[in-house]
Amino acid sequence: TKRVGPFTITVTNGTSDYLSCEVIISEDGKGAWLGQPHLIKNLEKTFWEDVKDLPVYKTPGTPNVGLRRANTESPGVDSGEHAKYRSGVGMLLYLVKHSRIDISNPVRELSKMLDKPTLAAVKEMKQVIKFVLDTRGYGLKIFPSDMSNSHWKITVYTDSDWAGDKDNRRSVSGFVLYLMGVPIMWRSRQLTGVSLSSSEAEYIALSEAAKEIKFMYQLMTTMGLKVATPITVYVDNVGAMFMAENVSTSQRTRHIDIRWAYVREFLENKFLKIVFVKSEENLSDGMTKNTSSDVYERHTPNYVIDKEDFLKSTSARTETGRVSRE
Length: 326
Prior knowledge:
single chain; five-stranded mixed sheet; 9 helices
């Protein structure tokens, strides 16, 4: 036990389990895999009979499809199916929290239907669960970049899907925050208001990410760590970049003036730097929409890795020196 700033922390030589997550560390200590096999076993125990006859899916969610809330044309399900739906989505949300970034948007879509799921929502949930069971070896990829530098490097990718919700036309925002090349924070959420343009939606997504960047920076500096600035934020919308870097607002952007000032201050203080990235190279694309199999396969290796692939690529160990292949 030692003091780091105002915190008292306990330092161990290694760990194999944390909050029901299995942790496998490479022999050289330069890489790790974090998965949730216990939770996946519970998913299988609860839902296997419901999903065993489903095909093998290439993506966790149906590409380019969003769920719509119950109405006269798509009524809700009975109470028993409703309870099972809530249980399944709850398990999936816990997977997203720790290890399965790749299913963030499909699970967000499912979670908005918790109050009154439709038959389509139940069907989509079963697809996500079947995909998770078929890819049960997937876990968080932890391969930090060069740690010889005295300053820690943060990079962030942000994205939005303009008017993505077909019911209320609110946009969906998402981001992935990398620390030394390792994803440590990610989010997929619906914005609280309707955006009038794709640039506005992208800019609001940028401002939401900026708040989390500031929090992470303050947390790390409080712990005595040096963070390299400016922090690079990748955006795939030129209009949003112009709004952030322009010195004045217009009639089209005046209603988001406070968000504009918030991000603009970070840019003027050299705390953030906005860089354009092509949409196909935006690693947060899967946070805002159900992507095609090509996009999913291109981005997924940046944040998750199969357990067997990890074991093959590096000599791995656990705290006891043995690796469980269950």
